[in-house]
Q: What sequence folds into this?
């Protein structure tokens, strides 16, 4: 039986994974920008920059939710295929 999914189609959870990756990347950049002055002995950034660093964790959680949604959809699809 051929798989009917197109190569360029998006499955459930794919958008969450992409959004999580973008948010994680923004958090990574904010973390690097925040930590570099500490190593160079310069004046530390304000508190909001440290709060932006928290986006790394948020992005990780969003991407994880997308993975779980994708796994659940795959299990649901497999269950439907086996019941036929």
A:
């Amino acid at each position: 039986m051929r798989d009917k999914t197109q190569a360029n189609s998006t499955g459930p959870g794919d958008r969450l994974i992409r959004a999580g990756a973008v948010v994680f990347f923004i958090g990574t950049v904010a973390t690097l920008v925040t930590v570099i002055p500490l190593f160079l002995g310069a004046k530390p950034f304000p508190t909001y920059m440290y709060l932006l660093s928290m986006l790394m964790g948020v992005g990780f959680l969003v991407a994880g939710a997308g993975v779980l949604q994708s796994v659940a959809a795959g299990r649901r699809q497999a269950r439907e295929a086996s019941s036929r």
About this structure: The CA atoms of residues 55 and 83 lie 42 Å apart. Residues 55-82 form the longest helix (28 residues). The mean pLDDT is 87. The chain is about 75% helix and 0% strand.
